[in-house]
Design a protein that fits this description.
Layout (H helix, E strand, L loop, with lengths): L2 E5 L5 H15 L7 E5 L3 H7 L6 E4 L19 E3 L2 E3 L4 H8 L1
Parallel strand pairs: 1-2
Antiparallel strand pairs: 1-3, 4-5
Length: 99
């Protein structure tokens, strides 16, 4: 499994996302799976990487939380969770896409 966490320094939501992602990986039996952090520095990087905000989580190259209508941006990303809007998917949501 290829797990990547794309982020940019202007938004710290990636820290919470990484913690939740590590918990979710452990729950599905992949606790030793490495998470590759990819820092996005320019809008050109964002366009090339299909980065639609920080954090962007890619599982085997796919963003399971993208709707397909987002545009590349150096911005903080907001996710819809069962508890409302948040800067990261919940552990349960991540477990769902990793299972």
């Amino acid at each position: 499994m290829d797990v990547r966490l794309l982020y940019f320094d202007g938004c710290t939501n990636w820290v919470m996302a990484e913690e939740r992602l590590r918990s979710a990986l452990a729950e599905v039996g992949h606790g030793d799976e490495p998470i590759l952090r990819v820092r996005v520095e320019t809008i050109e990087d964002a366009e090339r990487l299909d980065f639609i905000g920080s954090p962007t989580i890619l599982i085997d190259g796919t963003d399971p939380f993208a709707s397909g209508t987002e545009q590349p941006a150096l911005a903080c990303r907001v996710f819809t969770t069962p508890d409302g809007r948040d800067g990261s998917p919940t552990v349960a949501q991540l477990v769902g896409v990793l299972s």
